[in-house]
Specification:
The chain contains four helices and seven strands. With about 150 residues, it is an alpha+beta fold. The relative contact order is 0.16. A four-stranded antiparallel sheet has the order 1-2-3-4, with helices on both faces. A three-stranded antiparallel sheet has the order 5-7-6, with helices on one face. The protein has one domain (about 5-150): Aminopeptidase. The N and C termini lie far apart (about 35 Å). A hairpin with a 6-residue loop joins strand 2 and strand 3. The longest helix has 15 residues, at about 15-30.
Length: about 150
């Protein structure tokens, strides 16, 4: 495994879509095994290929060589839409680097949603200054999983 310092954070290009989708799929399965996914693996890959990478501000963590993409972040106008790391790359500082980048790119503030059962994500975002501002029953997301909205204001 490369060291965290040799991993480049860069804007995703079309050829990253498959690898980013695969990181998303592996990360979701590892972190949220009890959450039902409403879309097949192929549908997730198509979404990354046709929507996420070409239309959204998508960043990847690229470890280079045969390892390639090990993390991804997607930013909306003032929303951290996605932040996923390959399971074996958690705890190596890449999430911290992505959040720092997100704050630099959105200096007026950010919000995000995460599932209520994802306690490691809660601790991670709270450590980075995000505050839980809303809890829902999950009726507003495709997974129908209770979630929580976090907000960071500089």
């Amino acid at each position: 495994m490369s060291t965290e310092s040799t991993v480049a954070l860069r804007r995703a290009c079309d050829t990253d879509a498959r690898a980013a989708a695969d990181v998303w799929l592996r990360s979701f399965a590892a972190a949220l095994p009890s959450v039902a996914r409403p879309h097949s693996d192929d549908a997730v890959r198509a979404w990354f290929r046709d929507v996420v990478v070409p239309q959204e501000e998508t960043w990847v963590a690229d470890a280079g060589g045969d390892t390639g993409v090990v993390g991804l972040m997607v930013l909306g106008d003032d929303v951290l839409e996605q932040l996923y790391l390959a399971p074996d790359w958690r705890g190596h500082g890449l999430g911290d680097r992505f959040v720092t980048l997100a704050k630099e790119r959105r200096p007026h503030g950010l919000s995000l949603w995460t599932f209520q059962i994802n306690h490691p994500a809660h601790r991670f975002y709270e450590r980075h200054g995000f505050v839980a501002t809303e809890h829902t029953d999950g009726s507003g997301n495709e997974e129908r999983e209770p979630d929580v909205r976090y907000v960071w204001k500089p």
